[in-house]
Specification:
single chain, 15 helices, 7 strands, two-stranded antiparallel sheet
Length: 377
């Protein structure tokens, strides 16, 4: 929900001060919003993304440049595969949508593929909404929107998003299509990559739901946005397209909660020391202090989702935080938050013996000692 005008204006000014004088805001895209949903407890990422800080430049200024992002080869391969999937008016893509999501409908023989060309993101967003409204007046017709532009309200400002495709079914429902270059091997793909794609698709679904709400009227209810999206990938080791329907209801709920949290980033900003600024032009010591003033929640998964991951990993290791070992390990250790505490508990030097985590550590330490003693005999 958009912020009230006065409150939103004050927050935008506050976030501009955090970026630094004359530093333009880096627009949020679907990948960034999806990454927020992957680590919703990280206040550092929330404030930096909410303020529009360029985290790539920030990481380089901190001395921990990031290798995050796709290679040029991967981008070229992905673009070529997407062009193949959408060839001939999207005939193959629509066939996959029909096969995986809507077998009861008539096959998409004569689908509409409207031209979405317009000036600027605002113009493209308006053109997309116009074509979605037009599709609602054509029941029984398939419509393929190739690279539509959607706007999603984030902390009172619009984030412009560009899904690979949106399909309007003959019954008027809408489906998001994600086209990726990683393979489907024997009908399944890397779960981590599928999860990232699902989180990204969830962002598009939320944006489409805002459009649907605007199109609703007393005469006609809001169009339904399907919560099963189509993931299109190369089959095995070929360049032939294969598809899988992915239920993104969980990812949508998590992303919606995180975006709602972003609209309250003034709470995080208000807790920062006065004069805090994340401009990459600042001296390293001052910039490091500014970044460290915001708590981070590092996990190994951040390496594939955040430009500041190397910096946060180094700090996590220096502090001996158990989150460096992964979220599952952190969850098993309960109140033990550092490696030193874990080792002390295992040696019997600290910790409550009644704590299940402490008891398990001491049992593991005893078994290890027995195994080493047996091996030395």
């Amino acid at each position: 929900m958009p912020l009230p005008r006065t409150r939103g204006t004050a927050l935008r000014q506050q976030l501009a001060e955090l970026r630094g004088p004359d530093v333009p805001a880096k627009a949020l895209d679907a990948r960034a919003l999806a990454a927020l949903a992957a680590n919703p407890g990280c206040a550092r990422r929330a404030i930096l993304d909410g303020a529009g800080v360029n985290k790539t430049a920030l990481a380089s200024a901190l001395g921990s440049p990031s290798a995050f992002g796709q290679s040029q080869f991967a981008l070229t391969r992905g673009n070529a595969f997407e062009a193949k999937v959408k060839a001939d008016g999207g005939a193959e893509l629509l066939r996959l949508v029909h096969e995986k999501l809507d077998r009861s409908a008539e096959p998409p023989a004569d689908a509409r593929v409207p031209d979405l060309t317009a000036s600027g993101p605002q113009g493209r967003t308006a053109r997309t909404e116009l074509e979605l409204r037009e599709a609602a007046t054509r029941p029984g017709v398939w419509t393929l929107l190739d690279h539509p532009m959607l706007a999603l309200d984030v902390a009172g400002s619009p984030a412009f998003l560009e899904p690979d495709a949106v399909v309007v079914h003959p019954d008027g429902t809408w489906t998001v299509v994600e086209i990726k270059s990683f393979p489907l091997l024997d009908g399944s793909a890397d779960p981590a990559k599928v999860g990232a794609a699902a989180r990204q698709a969830a962002v598009y679904v939320l944006a489409l739901e805002e459009v649907a709400a605007r199109l609703a009227s007393e005469e006609s209810p809001a169009p339904r946005v399907r919560h099963r999206v189509l993931l299109v990938c190369p089959r095995d080791f070929s360049n032939l397209p294969a598809a899988s329907a992915v239920d993104i209801r969980k990812q949508r709920a998590v992303t919606a909660r995180q975006l709602a949290r972003l609209t309250r980033i003034e709470d995080i900003a208000d807790a920062l020391p006065e004069g805090t600024c994340f401009s990459p032009e600042l001296p390293v010591e001052e910039l490091t202090a500014a970044v460290e003033s915001v708590p981070a929640t590092y996990a190994p998964e951040c390496l594939s989702a955040c430009e500041l991951a190397f910096h946060c990993r180094a700090r996590s290791r220096e502090e001996g935080a158990v989150t460096t070992l992964g979220r599952p390990v952190r969850a098993e250790l309960g109140g033990l938050t550092t490696v030193e505490e874990v080792l002390a508990a295992a040696r019997g030097e600290a910790g409550d013996p009644g704590d299940p985590a402490v008891a398990a550590l001491r049992r593991a330490a005893a078994l290890r000692a027995e195994a080493l003693e047996a091996a030395c005999r």
